[in-house]
Amino acid sequence: METRAPYITIGAFVLAVIVAVFGFVYWLNTGGGIERRSTYRIAFEGPVPGLLTGAAVLFNGIRVGEVTALGLDAGRPRGVAATIAVAETTPVRKDTRVGLDFQGLTGVPVVALEGGDGTEPLAAGGVLVADKSAGQGMMQAARAALSRADAVLADNAEPLRETLASFRTFADALARNTPRLEGIVGGLERMTGGGAAAVRKVSYDLPAAETFPEPRTALKAGLAVAEPTAIVRLQTQRILLAAGAEGPEFEDGQWADSLPLLIQARLLQSFENYDIAHPPLRADNGADAEARLVLDLRRFEIEPGPPSRAVISLSAKLVDQAGHVAAARVFDVSRDVASLTSKDAAAAFAAAFTDLARDVVTWTAAQP
């Protein structure tokens, strides 16, 4: 016997399913997972780079909806029209401010609504006018910031150059006074109980020349001896090695004064030992002089060997009152150093300086 389909039962089932679907949709729109939405239009006064349909809409930073449509405004060539759907409970007012914000590292654009002070609500379908700067992209903002920074730099170029020049001068001063700064820092460390124990230094002196070849020529009256000029490296009390040479630091010994002052003092004593009746003056005491002995210290250092040698080089010029150079000569002397110790180095320098002082005095006395 052929089974006949229960058409009435099938029809009733299909009808029940349709009713259930419509009921579910109604539930979602009334009390279920989808809130009631209100639609508004936004009028942008410029481009909206990167804004897409489906972009989030934030109200005071809280997501309340999304962009549902974007289009050009035929009546405003520079304008863009957008449609947004937001939760019905969103307090959109007529003075609600509209802008674009960028979220995340990639800068995804979203529509940002910000509540105003007014209380008059905006009816659904109403129009909100965005700020004129709302469409300014991140790159545009960066270019504007760079342009402002460039203008600031251009306006302050000269003060910046002066500041850099001051830093350079300060750095040069630090470089010139590095040995002194190291000494100050080391002293502070020792005073506070830190750092290595201080090495006790022995002060060494240079002898003045006492014997001279005969016959002696009397010195000219009115002679003044200037303090030798020298590079910063030689304006020190340290016993120095030749530049670039490797050897001991002579940390246990030093000169009794800075080299230029010590050499000037011992040369003056050498002149007095030669002719005490006509002693020269110091050029820096302000006295008038008919002639000045101008000195430049070129070298005062140990050349490691073998054999190691103590080398002194000094240039001398006799200058008259008019500033003319009457005579000039370079004096170079050296002595072997028995060993690279402070004591033997100081002894070699003392012997070399005695010969140099004798040569300087006899040469100066021989000038017409």
Low-confidence stretches: none
Total separate domains: 2
Strand order of the largest sheet: 5-6-2-3-4-1-7
CATH class of the largest domain: Alpha Beta
Biggest pleated-sheet summary? 7 strands, mixed
Number of strands: 14
Q: What is the beta-strand fraction?
A: 25-35%
| Oligomerization category of the chains in this entry | single chain
Distance between the ends: 158 Å
Which terms would index this structure?
2 domains, 368 residues, 14 strands, five-stranded mixed beta sheet, seven-stranded mixed beta sheet, Elongation Factor Tu (Ef-tu), domain 3, single chain, alpha/beta, Rossmann fold
What does this structure look like?
The chain has 368 residues and is α/β, with parallel strands linked by helices. It folds into 2 domains: 37-134, Elongation Factor Tu (Ef-tu), domain 3 (Beta Barrel), CATH 2.40.30; 202-366, ABC-type transport auxiliary lipoprotein component (Rossmann fold), CATH 3.40.50.10610. The chain has helices at residues 7-30, 138-155, 157-176, 178-191, 259-274, 342-366, and strands at 37-44, 56-59, 62-72, 80-87, 97-103, 108-114, 127-129, 202-204, 223-225, 253-255, 281-282, 291-303, 309-320, 325-336. The strands form 3 sheets. It has a 7-stranded mixed sheet, with no helix packed on it. A 5-stranded mixed sheet has the order 11-9-12-13-14. Strand 5 and strand 6 (108-114) form a beta hairpin. The protein is rod-shaped and about 150 Å long. 21% of the residues are buried.
